[in-house]
Amino acid sequence: MEPGRSPLAGGRAATLIVRVEDTTDGSVVEHTFAHSPVRIGRSARNELSLPHRFVSASHGVVEFSGHGRRYTDLGSTNGSVLDGDLVPPRVAVELGPGAELDIGPLRLTFPAPPIEVPALGPDAAHAAPPPAIRPGGITAVMQQLARAPTTEQSWQDVLFPGSVIGRFELVRELGRGSFGVVFEAEDRHLRRRVAFKAVRPGGSSQVLLRQERLQKEAEAIAQLTHPNIVTLYDAGTCQSGPYLVLELLRGATLQETMRRERLEVSRALEIAIEIAWALEHAHAAGVVHRDLKPANVFVCSTGAVKVLDFGIASVLGGEDVRAVGTPAYMAPEQWRNGRQDPRTDVFAAATMLCETLTGNLPYRVTRSSSAVLDPGARPAVEAPGVPGDLQALLRSALSADPAARPLNGRAWLDALLATQERLDRPNRLETWRARLQGRASRIPLRLVLGAVGVAAAGVALLYELLR
Ligand SMILES: Nc1ncnc2c1ncn2[C@@H]1O[C@H](COP(=O)(O)OP(=O)(O)O)[C@@H](O)[C@H]1O
Ligand SMILES: [Mg+2]
């Protein structure tokens, strides 16, 4: 690969501008987004947060690309109106030029972004097109990565803090998985910190497998651009073998977060929803992760959640549907080496949610077997404080039979959002009750006594008049 050339470079990034007018006072605010999708809702976890009481916690979502824009109402309480018509919930509708989307008295319009004109330099005519990524196949760009060997010696010689590899200076080790070792590194050209992931050393057959995994990872992430999926900046080879350059995440993996603290139901649900957004995007792009587990989910210090490690991801329709995952999160079809599809990821995502909520895995698992394979197996999803409808959702997503689970990331996301909306509602009632009580307690006693006195006098007068 050309040094410094990103496998992602060359594509013209689409931009979304949302103009929000409050028709009650005429105020207007304009927001610009570089990443699709843009989630719209009352809470701050949405990209476009509209903190008005008539907006649902997760109200709707706009997906956009260079080709167009679509809006989906996520089953919000008060609904969304597009050009005067109520938008049916959970159905994507096109946002044509001049579309007006009303959420209560808020009017959202979508002005066209300024057109980007590519600079016409002397090299413009010869500029290489972005590498085509053929679904299911290892791209030519990635094949180059496999050529350099990884041996214990070359690894020790190259991968250590202080080492300089091309334009990257390794700063410190961040973590290790079964295949890769990840360093924080300084990109000296762009003067930014990145994550540098290289293959771990091992026996030669192991190393070949790991290199192939790294290629697949690059290929899978290169097809995905999403705020809940770690971004791939670049890929290359050095003396120790292939490497990936990824967006550097600060915070901790979900595994570390769970070890440190027991998460509240609302936070556990929020994290599950963020993961579901990533799955919705990956599945729509034809990618199945197949190794979702808390060590592959990162909870950033900003609160954002990102899915990592697409090392054994498969591209739907590709030739390889078999791969091992991690026993505790593996669906029965993975244990049986059977056909895996988006429902395999739904099973793993539900296993993680169950673990964050209850502190335990839903099925007893050893390295070589899982209770999910027993006939009539039932997941353990009960724990104090876990609402009944969340338990019911987990039971369906953890079914041994894939046909009984939500179909894919989208269906899983919809079910989680609907549950969150239902759980949010009583809280809103409680807020109102607390506010009313707060107000009542601020009314002075003499006013209350006065009002009672006036009422009593009124009753006495009425009695006199009617007598
Ligand atoms: N982009 C990143 N930013 C910060 N830390 C990372 C990043 N990617 C991975 N890590 C850390 O490295 C560990 C191993 O990375 P992972 O991609 O899961 O490797 P493997 O493919 O070997 O499992 C993760 O659990 C995490 O702690
Ligand atoms: Mg991993």
Automatic annotation (TrEMBL):
UniProt xrefs under InterPro entries: FHA_dom, Kinase-like_dom_sf, Prot_kinase_dom, Protein_kinase_ATP_BS, Ser/Thr_kinase_AS, SMAD_FHA_dom_sf
Residues spanning the signal sequence: none
Keywords: ATP-binding, Kinase, Membrane, Nucleotide-binding, Transferase, Transmembrane, Transmembrane helix
Binding site for ATP: K197
Protein origin, superkingdom: Bacteria
SUPFAM superfamilies given in the database record: Protein kinase-like (PK-like), SMAD/FHA domain
Transmembrane segments: 443-463
Residue stretches making up the FHA domain: 38-87
Protein name: Non-specific serine/threonine protein kinase
Species per Swiss-Prot/TrEMBL record: Anaeromyxobacter oryzae
Classification of source organism: Bacteria, Pseudomonadati, Myxococcota, Myxococcia, Myxococcales
